Amino acid sequence: MDSWLHSRNLDRVCQWLSGRTVGNDLCALRVTEVFQLVSGAWGRLNYTNHGYHSPRVSWITSTGPASKADDAADEASYTSREQKRQSDRARNQREGRDWSGLDTRLLSWMDRCPICHIRRRAGHDIDAYHKLKACQDEQREVVTAEIAKLQEIEFATGVCCQLCAVPQETCYDSTYVSRQGKEKCLYDGIVREVVAAIMVVDPDIVVEKMYAWMRNEGIWSENTAWSEEEVQQVTEMMLEWFSRRASWRHFTASVLVQVFIQLDQWVEAFGKGVELEDWVTVSSYSKQ
Q1: What tens digit of pLDDT does each residue of 206-253 get?
Q2: Which residues 6+ apart lie within 8 Å of 32 measured at CB?
Q3: How far apart are CA 195 and CA 151, in angstroms?
Q4: d(CA 132, CA 110)
Q5: Rounded distance, CA 22 to CA 30, Å?
Q6: Other beta carbons less than 10 A from residue 91's beta carbon
Q7: Nearest to residue 256, comparing CAs of 238, 240, 243, 237?
Q8: Predicted TM-score (pTM) above 0.90
């Protein structure tokens, strides 16, 4: 086995170094304390000009003699770290893609009826440039009722704009003052409306993908014969989930916006005849 795979103690050393010190300074990490000790000792050796004895480095990298059991442990440790590295890389790429494309996705729904725009993207020859309240679609009342439910979401402070549900950074860059002198959100009337419309009128395959994601979060179940009380309970759980901070590590947004992006991607893929992204990929990030 190549020596660079020998890292039997690396995970434990890193875990130990990342812990808190036991001394008076409860905020310091142990790695800081070790750095101070080592740098102090190095300074004293350098000052005396007596040289120093280098200890074996195998306490971290385990490059010494190894048994078959050691090799198996090293291989497993390396595989685990490599899988995590690949997962983190994929997550960062996905997060960057979702964030950078958010403005474009929001603009693609602006000034369009969400119901008719969905049907148009599915291949129907229909005009989508009108308000939802002017829509003649038979599902308009159902979508309107779903939007009203989403309006009940109480987002945590700082997660997003309370009015348009868009991340605050994006919202602040797009606010404007109306003729009445009121500050308004450019993207108001998009996120909630699109999520509600997609879940009501979109193709079954997209809706099933969303239900699968929600089941993975413990919000939905295969059972559809619910009592009125159970329906209310599930609705409250769903709204609470939507209000949470999204799993993005570098950007602040709500789960509702994450759902909006994913649903829009699924609708886009369906319209192009492309295989829809697996919901497991989505949910695996939110649990890390």
Answers
A1: 888 888 888 888 887 666 667 778 778 888 898 999 998 877 776 788
A2: 21
A3: 12
A4: 12
A5: 8
A6: 17
A7: 243
A8: no
